[in-house]
Specification:
single chain, mainly alpha, two-stranded antiparallel ribbon, 2 strands
Length: 85
Amino acid sequence: MRSGRRFSLPIDPWPQASLAERTAVGMVLTFLLLLPACAAGAALFVIAVVATYISWSYDLGASLRGFIIRHAGVVGRHGRVVRKV
């Protein structure tokens, strides 16, 4: 004894839509999914570039500081720089 309507999914959700219309809708949905993915990829690229720049500038600054200390003064006791006179 069954009561009520039988539930079934339609085979064709847009029976009146042409192939071009279905393709256009599919392309729009695909681009809507690709947009956040591309934005996330661009953000990760920018973060990687900034991190590389910070690391490179820190290494360059540290090496320049070491060069200046070696040529401008002698390291005395307790790690302090003593000027050559």
